[in-house]
Write a structure and sequence with these properties.
Elements: E1 14-25, E2 32-43, E3 47-52, H1 58-65, E4 73-78, E5 81-82, H2 88-98, E6 99-102, H3 114-122, H4 131-137, H5 153-165, E7 171-175, H6 183-200, E8 203-207, E9 219-224, E10 227-233
Parallel strand pairs: 3-8, 3-9, 6-7, 7-8
Antiparallel strand pairs: 1-2, 1-4, 4-5, 9-10
Helix pairs in contact: 3-4, 3-5, 4-5, 5-6
The protein binds adenosine-5'-triphosphate (ATP).
Adenosine-5'-triphosphate (ATP) is lined by residues 25-26, 32, 34, 52, 54-60.
């Protein structure tokens, strides 16, 4: 995909379709039922906030959507393709082509600058943004040659976002991206994610414990006890700069 194409035109109406997704860790008396039958449809291009108590299955589900794990039972379709029975090689291809990950901790290489951290990904991607373009998208055009230790936590997280989006993924999966940040810094990170979602049209899922963040979503998904308890479309969507916590 080139930079000039309209990335908001989805090739399929649904990005993900999950049916009866279960994930059991371990066996016998020690078995943990992390997911107990998740049904969920996620349209392409949306910004989705995922809420739910600790242990409700959010990360397990995100890992399955991202091809880091497969369900014990059930089916997950990505743009109509079944990823729930893929082998390791197919999952690796799927992740490389389609998925960007952002985690709570940034996992930047301390000995590389912001530009070099992003270049690690762009050197192996098919149609990447340049590191400069990706870093500009998250507002770090003036920090290209800074090392992680010279950047604030929020700036480091934005480098991690630039790294995740530089390959122009179809999907951006974020597990507690603001979990380690104060409110003002967290809002800058959310603004970066929103810009990426708007500009690239990547379907963006954001796990958080912070219910205030739900206000910026197109869709809010609430997990409880390994199931989806509620899905609601957000009628009154706010910009990140309009929320606080
Ligand atoms: N690799 C694993 N082995 C065994 N149990 C696991 C594993 N990963 C997760 N679990 C268990 O599965 C359940 C769901 O975990 P998960 O991390 O998906 O929840 P979560 O909603 O993301 O929680 P949190 O908000 O605390 O991150 C928990 O009871 C957890 O302990």
């Amino acid at each position: 995909m080139t930079g000039s194409e309209d990335k908001r035109a989805p090739p399929h109406p649904l990005c993900f379709r999950a049916r009866g997704v279960t994930r059991v860790y371990g066996a016998g008396a020690a078995a943990v039922h992390a997911l107990r039958g998740v049904d969920l449809d996620l349209p392409d291009g949306e910004l989705v906030v995922v809420l739910g108590a600790s242990g409700s299955g959010k990360s397990t589900f995100l890992n399955i959507l991202g091809g880091l794990d497969i369900p014990t039972e059930g089916e997950v379709l990505f743009r109509g393709e079944d990823i729930s029975r893929a082998n390791q090689h197919q999952l690796t291809e799927y992740r490389r082509r389609h998925i960007g990950f952002v985690f709570q901790f940034y996992n930047l290489m301390p000995s590389l600058t912001a530009r070099e951290n992003v270049a690690l990904v762009t050197e192996i991607a098919e149609a990447p943004l340049s590191p400069e373009q990706a870093l500009a998208m998250v507002g770090l055009e003036n920090r290209l040659d800074h090392f992680p230790a010279q950047l604030s936590g929020g700036e480091q997280q934005r480098v991690a976002i630039a790294r995740a989006v530089a390959k122009q993924p179809s999907v951006l999966l974020c597990d507690e991206p603001t979990g380690a940040l104060d409110s003002a810094t967290g809002i800058l990170v959310l603004e970066a994610l929103k810009t990426v979602n708007d500009t690239l049209g990547a379907t963006t899922l954001l796990i958080t414990h912070n219910a205030a963040i739900a206000a910026i979503a197109d869709r809010v998904v609430i997990f409880a006890d390994g199931r989806v308890r509620e899905v609601r479309e957000n009628a009154d969507k706010r910009a990140p700069g309009e929320i606080s916590w």
